[in-house]
Amino acid sequence: MALEIGQEAPDFEALDHEGKPFRLSSLKGKRIILYFYPKDDTPGCTNEAISLSNYYDCFKKLGYEIVGVSTDSVESHQKFRKKYNIPFTLIADTNKEVVQKYGVWGEKKRFGKTYFGINRTTFIIDENFRIKHIIKKVDTKNHAQQIAKLENINLEKCEFTN
User: Which is catalytic among the residues 9, 45, 86, 153?
Assistant: First the structure.
């Protein structure tokens, strides 16, 4: 079952990059950028994390929390965060419960081979824990700008435009 805009965001508990339990509902009342990416330290995933990291302070100032989810381990997330100075929470969904709950785990094709993995997707969740936007065609190098456009944010001035 695919998630839709307007639905309540599914809550989950999983380990964060420090190995501590993290519950998405702990962010209720804030805006959440919940993004799912295939693998730590790969070109597209690195570009996406850097794009979001570059504007992290602005998003934070405007009331957003950023949470990245992949099926990588806690240790992998620690190395990835350190290598690229990623300031936000990364979730280690090693048992694939979160990716399945959000409907982003599925069949993929690459170089003529079929396999299962994460379909890169971002969910923007409002303060009432409702899904406001779903981005399935992620521009990894300009992901922060892609989100800002949907949310009417001027990233250079760090303010809402409406």
Answer: 45
Using one digit for the tens of pLDDT, what is the confidence trace for 8-49?
Answer: 999 999 999 999 999 999 999 999 999 999 999 999 999 999
pTM to 2 decimal places: 0.95
Q: Is the pLDDT of residue 84 over 70?
A: yes
Q: Is residue 7 part of a domain?
A: no
Q: How many domains does the chain have?
A: 1
Q: Residue 53: what residue type?
A: S
84: domain CATH number is: 3.40.30.10
CA–CA dist 140, 113 (Å, integer): 23
50 contacts 41 by C-beta, under 8 angstroms: no
On whether residue 107 sits in a domain, the answer given is: yes
Q: 93 lies in which domain range? A: 28-160
Q: Is 45 a catalytic residue?
A: yes
